[in-house]
Write a structure and sequence with these properties.
The complex is a heterodimer. By secondary structure, chain A is of the alpha/beta class. Chain A is built from 8 helices and 6 strands, in the order H-E-H-E-H-E-H-H-E-H-H-E-H-E. Chain A has a 6-stranded parallel sheet with strand order 2-1-3-4-6-5, sandwiched between helices. Classes of the chains: A alpha/beta, B alpha/beta.
Chain lengths: ~160, ~190
């Protein structure tokens, strides 16, 4: 998945601020964001903060996007519920799907960061889509459209490492 | 020690027209009695420990307004990393007040871990925040009142307040409505 395509999609949605915490799978995406003069990166110390900061940014008139990994997402429960979800804010999160490739029959080791993810997203009432390759870049715009229409958060899961 | 209610009254009287005030837990309802406009946001029925980072986001988005967050000591401890987060992309218009009385006041005044031992001002300074003031007397409060609004942020003021007995805060309207009113007040939309 080309990071530049994701960034292009984010900019087309008016995103100016990225709130997040880097992970290995999205390393190139973060590096390109840091190098982009049109994007402001707000780094957080733990993923729950990302939803609180993004909610403040949005209410202040800015269009943010949250970028975190699924492992950190599990920590965000109360922060997500109590800020952007309860507030009804159209905040889009891009999330690295660590362990997706381990969810195959007879896998020697299954990553619970992967197996827990989609059930958790469903339980937390977060609509999501899976971004596998460059042809799926439009899912970013789709997520924003859905989030804005329903006035609630939405997620795009980044299945493969960004390049 | 400070009387919380006296401090809030003085802060409300000194507050500028466009300033945003985010409150949480034991401060939110007393503050609402002093000021309850759309720029007063009770971070209640929300996410525990996430008022400061939420307010920090507001401050980044609204650089021409002062944004104050009145946070508790227990709430601060719930997301201590925010002291570091708020130094990474400094908002010069952001003021964080930590009201310290060592108790979870609204749940029955149980003792906060580290009560009386944690040095909140020291934590803030160690996180990289330059303007940090601890206030323990009315005279000191009066002397530093204006700085809550005009010191170069991010600023942290630790109020050493008396124990009190506030009930669980119950805002009159859902957080969703209050949030959208705040956005409308800030953006005109």
């Amino acid at each position: 998945m080309q990071a530049s395509l994701i960034i292009e999609q984010l900019k087309q949605q008016g995103v100016t601020h990225i709130v997040g915490l880097p992970d290995n799978g999205a390393r190139i995406l973060f590096e390109k964001i840091w190098a982009d003069d049109d994007l402001t990166f707000v780094g957080v110390t733990r993923e729950g903060e990302a939803f609180a900061v993004a909610s403040g940014l949005y209410l202040g008139g800015i269009t943010p996007a949250v970028i975190i990994q699924n492992t950190g997402f599990f920590e965000t429960g109360d922060a997500f519920r109590g800020t952007c979800y309860n507030m009804g804010l159209p905040i889009v999160m891009l999330m690295g799907y660590r362990g997706y490739q381990t969810m195959v029959p007879d896998a020697p080791r299954v990553d619970t960061a992967a197996t827990f993810l989609e059930p958790t997203l469903k339980a937390w009432d977060i609509p999501y889509s899976l971004m596998h390759n460059d042809e799926d870049a439009h899912l970013v715009a789709d997520a924003f459209a859905d989030a804005r229409q329903r006035s609630r958060p939405a997620a795009v899961l980044i299945v493969n490492h960004t390049v | 020690m400070l009387n919380k209610y006296n401090c809030l009254k003085k802060l409300a009287d000194a507050r500028g027209e466009g300033d945003v005030v985010v409150t949480t837990m034991s401060v939110s309802m007393p503050w609402a009695e002093l000021s309850d406009t759309h720029l007063d946001f009770a971070h209640v029925d929300s996410a525990m420990g996430h008022a400061a980072d939420f307010a920090y986001g507001l401050a980044i988005a609204q650089p021409n307004r002062r944004v104050l967050c009145l946070n508790g000591d227990g709430s601060t401890l719930m997301c201590l990393g925010t002291l570091v987060t708020m130094t990474q992309h400094p908002a010069p218009n952001f003021t964080l007040v930590i009201t310290e009385n060592g108790t979870y006041e609204v749940t029955g005044s149980q003792i906060v871990p580290g009560a009386g031992a944690v040095d909140f001002a020291g934590l803030a300074r160690a996180a990289g925040i330059e303007h940090v003031v601890t206030i323990a007397s009315e005279a000191d409060f009066d002397a530093h009142l204006a700085a809550h609004f005009d010191s170069p942020g991010p600023s942290v003021f630790v109020w050493k307040i008396e124990k009190a007995d506030e009930p669980v805060p119950k805002p009159s309207r859902p957080i969703r409505d209050r949030a959208h009113d705040l956005r409308a007040a800030l953006t005109g939309g």
